[in-house]
Structures are given as structure tokens and as C-alpha cells.
Amino acid sequence: MSAKEKGGFEDMAKADRARYEREMKTYIPPKGETKKFKDPNAPKRPPLAFFLSVLNIAQKSKNILAYPLVMLQRN
């Protein structure tokens, strides 16, 4: 692209920049709600039924095995 062709686009960019700055002088941002912070003292949510059942199954299988699963993996 030659300098002459670029000149037209640069002029359009300068005009658009001036328009943007003119509009931003009168711009007032909307009053939005501030972010609600999490209360550190709030109670935790109850566990899901799926995780309760998985923990139950894991506990049963742990009681059935006479030795830890780590020993099974090493042999």
C-alpha cells in the first residue's frame, strides 16, 4: 500500500479519534452494583449425593481389603 493510499485511512483514523475523544468527555459510566464478596464465615454447601455414595463405597472397599491399595499396585 502506497503512502498516498495510507493517507486517506490515516485521515479517517484521526477524525474518528477526535470523535471518540469528544464523546468520551461527556460519557458518564453507569452505576453498577459492586461485586459481592464471599463471607468467610458462611456455612459450606452440603455434599452431593454422588460424592456421599462414592465415599461410602470407598470406605466399604477399604474395610474389605486386608492391606492398603498401595501394596496392590506395587505387586
UniProtKB/TrEMBL annotation:
Alphabetical keyword list: DNA-binding, Nucleus
Record-annotated HMG box domain positions: 1-27
Nucleus among keywords: yes
Domain of life, source organism: Eukaryota
InterPro entries: HMG_box_dom, HMG_box_dom_sf, HMGB
GO terms of molecular function: DNA binding
Signal peptide: none
GO biological process, one term: regulation of transcription by RNA polymerase II
Pfam families: HMG_box_2 (PF09011)
Matching PANTHER family: HIGH MOBILITY GROUP PROTEIN B1, HIGH MOBILITY GROUP PROTEIN DSP1
Full protein name: High mobility group protein B1
Native source species: Sciurus carolinensis (Eastern gray squirrel)
